[in-house]
Amino acid sequence: MSRKLRWGILGCASIAKRAVIPGIHVSKSGELVAIASRDYSKASQTASEYGIPKAHGSYEDLLADETIDAVYIPLPNHLHMEWTIRAAQAGKHVLCEKPLSLTAEEAEAMRQACERAGVQLAEAFMYRYNPRNERIKEVLRSGEIGEIRGIHSSFTFNNTGNRNNVRFKREWGGGSIYDIGCYPISAARLFLEQEPEAATVHAFFSDTHGDVDMMASGLIEFQGGVALTFDCAMWAAPRNTLEILGSEGCIYMSPAFGGHDFTVTTKGESRIVATPEVNQYALQADRFADGVFGDTPLLFPPSDAVNNMRVIDACLKSASARTRILI
User: Which of 56, 99, 107, 268 could form a disulfide with 306 if both were Cys (CB 3.0 to 4.6 A apart)?
Assistant: First the structure.
């Protein structure tokens, strides 16, 4: 019988119910054991609805559950550090929702806590487990689109009608850069395979939405004159795209963070490259389990999340100070 990683879920967030729980259910290696909420009735209802055997009325009770090996944390951003560290101290491996923390300093504290406890820590960027990414890297390495000149990505949506959304609470880590700007930043680092040098971001802060950044436009500088330009928004028409521009052609993805094909254009000719349709959340769970079981190292170690938070720190500082920030 194959090994199973026994999962507990800290919280009943929408992303957990909509994507991560179903993903673990269909994963090869995962077994959902329990879910927790500070409201037991909410945990019990979610457990019943999603076929989870146990419900706990507190996060502490779930961490004390000896039948659980790993926890997924979809809590609001300001709670990520506390509950990651507490989970590590309880001997649980941690898959924490993006962004990993509020600052790079917090992310580093989380990394160190998990290292001391001997548990694995990963940031839940599901798109990075899609085999499409490796196929894109193969095209880049082949030289088909020439040298990379730049990357542009747009990730926007409009949810202004929900005024009680945690994304609109500044002290909880709200705002578009934390929520979705982190995706283009992560993707640029993934495809360029290097860390950026500086960030310049201009943002629209809304005093009717907790004074968080509801729209941000950024320039992230990499070596060799290459840059990521991006925009992210929670108060704009929906878009989800990424383009890698080369000296001889380009690669285009839409949707950028959930699709299964991409377009390559060279010399005025375009072709669609199809990749397998997969459940990115199931692949994320399986790849995390591989790291826990020691079969392979984590595809993205926690140091990667620390580096991504350094860029986010610079973006937020730039948007606030209206100036270019070195990373």
Answer: 107
CATH number for the domain that contains residue 220: 3.30.360.10
The verdict on whether 98 is a catalytic residue reads: yes
Q: Which domain holds residue 320?
A: 128-276+309-326
Which residues, 6+ apart, have CB-to-CB distance to 286 below 8 Å? 27, 28, 29, 30
| 173 and 78 Cβ atoms separated by less than 8 Å | yes
Angstrom distances, CA of residue 284 to CA of 179, 295, 316, 320: 19, 15, 28, 34
- The active-site residue out of 98, 137, 267, 317 is 98
The answer to whether the pTM exceeds 0.70 is yes
The predicted pLDDT at position 98 comes to 98
Residue 1 has pLDDT above 50, yes or no: no
As for how many domains the chain has, the answer is 2
Tens of pLDDT, residues 123-139: 999 999 999 999 999 99
